[in-house]
Structure formats: C-alpha cells, structure tokens
Amino acid sequence: MTEGNKQILLAARPAGFPTESDFRLVESPRPSPAAGEVLVRIIYLSVDPYMRGRMSDAPSYARPVQIGEVMTGGCVGEIVESQNPRFAPGDIVEGPLGWQQYAVSSGLGLRKIEPKLAPISTALGVLGMPGLTAYFGMIDVCRVKAGETVVVSGAAGAVGSLAGQIAKLHGCRVVGTAGSDDKVGWITGELGFDAAFNYKTESNYRARLKELCPSGIDEYFDNVGGPMTDAVISLINVHARIAICGQISQYNLEKPEMGPRWLGQMIVKRARVEGFLILDYAERFGEGLERMARWLKEGKLRYREQFAEGIENAPRAFLGMLRGENTGKQLVRIAPEP
Hints:
Rossmann fold; 2 domains; six-stranded parallel β-sheet; 9 helices; 24% helix
C-alpha cells in the first residue's frame, strides 16, 4: 500500500475563539515530486499566533487560508526525494510547508539547516522566525539603548522571552508580564529579567508597572495589546519607542474592544509607535541569524521548547498556545528525527 499523508485542513472560519471543529484531519496518498521539486518528511511543526489571522478572510498582510486548504505553518523536515539540484535526500530544511506529514516544494522559501550547530527544532524558535522577530523588533524598531527601561508583554512566549534577553544583553533594565507565577519565575530566574508580574492575578496594571519602572518606560515590546498596552503607554518617557509585534489579546474578539484614547500621549512624549512584520527584514535574515547563533553558542541566550506529539494534536496545541498554556516555543513533533 502507498504510504499515506495526514493533513490538517481549515474546515471553518472561526467566530471568536477557534475550536477543534474549525479543523479537519484527512489522509491522502503520499505525494511525489515533479521536475524541480522536492518531497519533505516533516519532523517539527510550529504553531504561532499569526495563524489565527490567516484563518480569517479579513484583510491581512498575507492571503488567508481557504476553506479546505492545508493550514499554513512553518516546519522543519528531511528531504526524502529530490528532483531539484539544490537539494539532496537527507538535507534538513526549514520552510512554510503546512500542517501535514509530507509536503512537496519547489524549493522556494526553503533554507538548509546544519544539524551540528544546534537542535534542528531551534530553526522554528530561537534560530528561526521568533528569534528574528525578537532581534529586529528590539534592535531596529525599539532601538535598544543601554541604561533604559524596557517592558516586554507576553514575556514568557517564544518571541517575548528572547526580546527581553536581547534588551538585557544591551544593558537595559527589563520588566516582563506573563500569565502565571511559574512563567514569572522562569523569566526573572533563568532568563535574567529584572522584574515581572502575573497579569492574571494583578488587578491594576498601571500601578504595578509604575512600581517596577520608577524611572518610566523607554521601550515597549508589545505582544498582547489591550489593557496592558494602555497601561504601559500612560507611563512612557519622552522619546519612547514602542514596537507593535502582536496583539494576541484582541485576535479572538467578535467585536472591537474599546480602550483609552492615548494618541495625545504620543504628542506630549514625542514618542514613536511602529508596527512591523518580520518579512520586512528578509534581506537581513543572515545578519540576525548569525548574531542570535553567536549569542546562543556563548550561552548568552536561553530558550524553552514545548512539544505536542503527532499531527492529530496540532489543533489542540495551537488552541493551547492561543490560551497561553505554553512556556517558550510551542511545537508539534510530527515524526522522529533521522
């Protein structure tokens, strides 16, 4: 019998928070590559907040996943068949291959991974899109500067945990927010944040931030939006820089959330707010990966990975990530490493 290929398709567009019924597991024959193509056996799948936006048909920076299509997602895998001279069987690659066990690719968007440098799963975390997002968001958008105070929301996530460490490497005082006492302990202990608090048990974000940032806030790396961002903006210093990386608190709302109108604060403080996408920095990925890899090798960066097992559990892992159940990078292990 021909070996099958299990895939997770988008079954419905969510209204509010997604459910497992918005996905459908199917099985089809394993594909074969045509001329110029490769067949990749997927080993690790990444689940990330941006995928929630791709499930919607609202205007976005990228084409929405269509009903009945394989869910989008970054993967690390092994090339098992190649009709492309740039790749050989046994190569380990990373690319946007989707929620499935096997994927055919023209090679566009695939990058080769050197397994001897670091665990191959890191190509989806500290040495992948989350690491690059933290790097360029902190270096270019926040324009990190020694001696300043930095706040990172969602600080125990794949991006936030790295953004805070990068700020520490540049001599900043770093304060984080996270969703559990264990996460607060991790970022203030192992990761070296100067202070943090559990936003789920704190009733007054502004008062807590004012206590932890007595000199005000110079840089804000925003992963969550909503009331946390409102509180931060009320405490920013003159010439503060705010990087809008994500707004995960808003992604599943059925109606827009009303909040304080804080644009006047931008005038008084002559502050800068900038949203960004990691794709904007594609020509500089080499720079970012080289710097992140060096810091990792020198022991200056720490990371945590959390694994769900099997393609069948990808929807559950994705929903758990949206609920903040993961610490560090959430991955799905699809197959054993070679």
